[in-house]
Write a structure and sequence with these properties.
Layout: E1 9-13, E2 19-23, E3 30-34, E4 40-42, H1 43-48, E5 51-58, H2 71-78, E6 80-82, H3 90-94, E7 103-105, E8 110-115, E9 127-133, E10 144-151, E11 163-166
Parallel strand pairs: 4-10
Antiparallel strand pairs: 1-2, 3-5, 3-11, 5-8, 6-9, 7-8, 9-10, 10-11
C-alpha cells in the first residue's frame, strides 16, 4: 500500500507576470533539481540538446540499478512529462526518445539526466515539465515530484522552485 501526501501550492507572480507554483515540503525527504534545464529553459535549447537535470536526494538514496537498462530507470524517465501534450511538444518529441543511456547514477544520492538534441521539438506556448521520481527508483517507498518551465523565445520564463516535494 502506498500513502500519498498532496502538498498545497502557492501561486507567486513576479514583476513581469510569470507565475510560479511553489510546493510546501511536509517532511525532510527531498530531492533538489539543478542542472542546465533549471529554473527554466528556452525552446531552442531543448532542440539543440545537451541540457541536464541533476536530481540530488536528501535522506533518501537511489536504487543501485538506476542508470542501467531496466524498468527502474525507465520509470524515472517516464516520470519526466509535460502537463499538456501539444503536437510537437515534450511528451511527443522528447520524452519518448529518452532511454537508459540518458541517465547517469553519479552517487547514491545524485542522478543526472542528459537530454539529446530534438530538432522536431516545437511549442506554440510555454510548457510545464513535471519531474516525478517514482518509488521504484528509490530505496525508500515514496514518490517525489517537482516542475520545470520550458518557454518560447520572446516569452517570460516561468521560474519554478527546484525543490521536489512529496506528492
Amino acid at each position: 500500500m502506498t500513502t500519498i501526501i498532496s502538498t498545497p501550492t502557492l501561486d507567486l507572480t513576479d514583476a513581469i507576470g510569470a507565475v510560479a507554483r511553489v510546493g510546501l515540503a511536509l517532511n525532510s525527504y527531498t530531492a533538489v533539481l539543478t542542472g542546465t534545464m533549471l529554473p527554466s529553459v528556452a525552446e531552442a535549447s531543448v532542440r539543440q540538446g545537451g541540457k541536464t537535470i541533476i536530481i540530488t536526494l536528501s535522506r533518501a538514496t537511489w536504487h543501485s540499478d538506476i542508470g542501467g537498462d531496466n524498468a527502474k530507470t525507465q520509470a524515472l524517465l517516464d516520470g519526466i512529462l509535460a502537463t499538456a501534450s501539444p503536437v510537437a511538444g515534450w511528451n511527443v518529441t522528447v520524452q519518448p526518445n529518452l532511454n537508459y543511456s540518458n541517465v547517469s547514477r553519479d552517487s547514491d544520492t545524485q542522478v543526472t539526466v542528459s537530454f539529446p538534441a530534438m530538432s522536431s521539438y516545437e511549442i506554440t506556448t510555454s510548457e510545464e515539465i513535471v519531474v516525478t521520481v517514482p518509488q521504484e527508483a528509490l530505496t525508500a517507498g515514496f514518490e517525489l515530484a517537482s516542475r520545470i518551465g520550458v518557454r518560447r523565445l520572446g516569452r517570460p520564463a516561468i521560474g519554478l522552485t527546484p525543490t521536489v516535494t512529496i506528492t
